[in-house]
Amino acid sequence: MTGKLGLDPALVARARELARRAGQPVVDLARSHTTVSVERAVLRLAGVTGADPDGIPWVNRLVDAVVADVGLGHGVAAPVFDALVREDIADVTLLAQKAAAGSVRFGQPSGKAATAARRASRKAVAAGVRAIDRRRAERDRLVKRFGDPERRPWIYLIVATGDIYEDIPQAQAAARAGADVIAVIRSTGQSLLDYVPEGATREGFAGTYATQENFRLMRAALDETSRELGRYVRLTNYASGLCMPEMATLAGLERLDMMLNDSMYGILFRDINPIRTFVDQRFSRQVHARAGIIINTGEDNYLTTADAVDEAHTVTVSQLLNEFFAHEAGLADWQLGLGHAFEINPDVPESLRLELAHALLARELFPDAPLKWMPPTKHMTGDVFRGNLLDGFFNLVGTMTGQGILLVGMMTEAVVTPWLSDRDVALQNVRYVLGAAGGLHEDFVPAPGGFIQQRAHRVLGEAVDLLERIGDQSLLTAIAEGTFGIMKRPADRGKGLSGVARHEADYYNPATEILEQPL
Amino acid sequence: MSEKTIVRPYGDTTGDGMVQVSFTLPVPHDKRAEGAAVQLANKMGMDPAMLVHAKPIGDGFTFFVVYGRVNHLVDLAKVQVVERDYPLLSAKEVNAVVKRRLRRKLSVVGACIGTDAHTVGIDAILNVKGIAGEKGLEYYRELKVTNLGAQVSVPELVEAARRERADAVLVSQVVTQRDAHLHNTREMSAAFREAMPAGRRPLLIVGGPRFDETMTGELGVDRIFGRGTTPGEVASYLVHALITSRKANTP
C-alpha cells in the first residue's frame, strides 16, 4: 500500500509487465521494418533541404527515386551516398535534384563501396544529430538564463489561425498573459499528407501547416518573448500522421520543446496503417529522446469517442503502453507528458469525485511524468457560463492532483475558435484557481477505503484485465479487432502501408545506429 | 387570439427590456475606451447602457460587459424560421434507426475524384477524428464506411460503389480551378446513371466549400453540402433520405 490511493504495488508492477508483454512484439516489428518517412528523416538529418517547384520536398523526390531503383528495404543511406561518390557530387540536395530529373541511377553497393557509402552517410547524419544536440544545449542554456515557470502545472495554450504571421503576435500575447507553453494546431488533414510542406505558410484549414520555416519563425518569436518575460516559453507541435519521423527531426533541429506523439492515435483516429505507425513512432521517439523534447500522448481522444466513466481504464492501458514504447525508445520519465482528460458527463452524480479518482490514479502510476491534463470538450454545449464553471472545476482537479501540463479550457469550446477575450477569461479562471488552491494537492489525501480510492482501484483493476486480454492475442490483433475505441484496424490495411518495407539483410540506417548508441 | 405576440427581453420584470452583452474594443483601457463602449451599446439600441465591467486584455485591447435596456419589440407572429428538411439526429439515434429499419449496415463510399488531392473535406466527414468536436461517420456503428481517399477516377468510384453495395456515395471537391468541381461532379453523376438503373443507384452526395447548394438538379446529384457541414448533418440526411422518408420501400 503506497501513495494517496493505497494502490497495490504488486498490481501496478503486474500492469507494467503486461504492457511490456503486449508492446514487445510491436517493438520487434518496428525494429525489423522501415518506412519512407523514416528514410526521409534520415536524409533530412544528412542535410537534404528544400522542395521542388511544385512544393514536393527533395527528400521525397530522392527517396522515391531510390525506391524505384533498388526498393526501400535496404535503407536509402547506402544507395544515396554510393551515388554521391559515383556522380562526384558534394551536396546531397543537388543529388536529389538530379535524381528527380532522372539523371542518376541508384544501386545497392557491396564490398568496399558499401563500407565507404555507409561511412559517408554516417558522417553526414552525425552532423545532423550534432545540430540537434546543439539545439538541446541551447534550450538548457536559455531555460537557465530566463528561468522555468514558477509553478506547476505549466499553462498550455493553443493558437491556430492558419497564418503563421497572425499566429506569432497571438502566441506572444498569450505568453504575456501567462501561457508557459504555446501549441500551434496543425491544418486539418496535414497528418494524412505524405510529405512535409515547405516554407512559411499563410493559409490553412482550422490550423497552421507545420513546416520547418514556421517552426523557426515561431521559436524565434517566442525566444524574444521569453527574454522580455524572464521565463522560457515552450513551443509545441505535432509528430503524428504519416510524417512523424520527419516532424520529430524538424522539431529537434528547430528547438521545439514538446511534440504531440501518441502510439496509437494515428491508427485509431486517422486509419493509418498500424505497422507504419509503430515504425514511424519508434524512430520519432528516438529523435525526441535525443532532442530533449517532451512528448504529449493523446489519451484524451479515447474519452471523446467513448464514455469517460465506462472506458476510463482504456486511458490507463494506453498510458502504460505509451510509457513502455517511450522508455524503449530512450525517453526519460521527465519527457512523458502522458495524457488524460476531464470528460465525464457533468450530469453524472459525483462526476467531480470520479474525475479526482482518475486524475490521481494517473498521477500515482506515473509519479515522475509531467502529465498532460486536458479540458472538457465533449460536454461543452455553447452555454459559455456553465462552460466557464466546468473549466474552473477542471482547473481545480488539475491542481489538487498535481498535474504537470494544463491545457487551458475555453468556455467557447465547440462555439468559435477562441476570441481574445475568451482566452483572457480562461486564463483568469486558471490564475484564480491556482492562486486560491495551488497548494491543495499537499492537503488532498482521499479517505482510505473511500469513494475516490475505491474508484481508482476499480479502474486499475479493469486496466489490468484489459491488458491480460490483449496479452493473450498481441497488440496488433487487439487493434485489428477493435479493442481500442470501436474501430477495427487490421495490420494489412490503412493509409501509408505502401511506404512500409521489411528490412533486407543489408539494411542500413545511420541515424538509428547513432541514436541507439549509449551517450 | 389572446396569445401575446409582442414581447421584450426579460431581466427581472415583465417588459423591462434588459439585455447583457460583452465585447472587446481594440483600444487601451481608459475613460475614453469606456465612453466608446457605451457609445457602441447605445448604437445597438441599449438605452440606458450600464457599463458594469471594463478590463484591459493584451496590448491595446479592452473587454467590456454592458447591461442595459433595449426598446426593440419582438413580434412572435412575424418570426420566420427556415426548417431543415430533415431532423438532426444524434449518432445513437442514427444507429438505432439504421438497425431497426434497414436491418443491415448502411454502406457509404467516399472519395475525392479527379486530380483533387485535398482530402480535408472527405476526411473531416468520414474519419473518426471528425471535425468541430463531432466524430466522423466511421464512428457510427451501423454505417460501413469505405474511404477511397484522393485522386480516385470515376470508373474506380463506380466499381467501388458496386463492390461495397453502396447506399450512398460521398464525393468531396475542394479544387475549383476552371470549374473542375462542377465538371467532375457531372461526370460522376453521369457515370452512375449509365452504370446502374434508377432504383439501384446509390444516393449521390457532393460536398465542398464552393458549391451552390441549390444546384443538385443541374449536377445530377441528390444533395450538395457546403462549407461548415458536420458529419452529424450528413449522417442525419442519409437516414432521412434512405430510410425514414422512404415509407413503403420494402417489397
From TrEMBL, chain A:
Source taxon at top rank: Bacteria
Record-annotated D-Lysine 5,6-aminomutase alpha subunit domain positions: 5-513
Entries under SUPFAM superfamilies matching the protein: Cobalamin (vitamin B12)-dependent enzymes
InterPro entries tied to this protein: Cbl-dep_enz_cat, Lys-AminoMut_A, Lys-AminoMut_asu_sf
Annotated GO MF terms: catalytic activity; cobalamin binding
Signal peptide start and end residues: none
Full protein name: Beta-lysine 5,6-aminomutase alpha subunit /D-lysine 5,6-aminomutase alpha subunit
TrEMBL record, chain B:
Pfam families recorded: B12-binding, OAM_dimer
InterPro entries: Cobalamin-bd, Cobalamin-bd_sf, KamE_N, KamE_N_sf
SUPFAM superfamilies linked to this entry: Cobalamin (vitamin B12)-binding domain (SSF52242), D-lysine 5,6-aminomutase beta subunit KamE, N-terminal domain (SSF117778)
The protein's name: Beta-lysine 5,6-aminomutase beta subunit
GO MF annotations in UniProt: cobalamin binding; metal ion binding; protein dimerization activity
Organism of origin: Micromonospora tulbaghiae
Domain B12-binding: 105-249
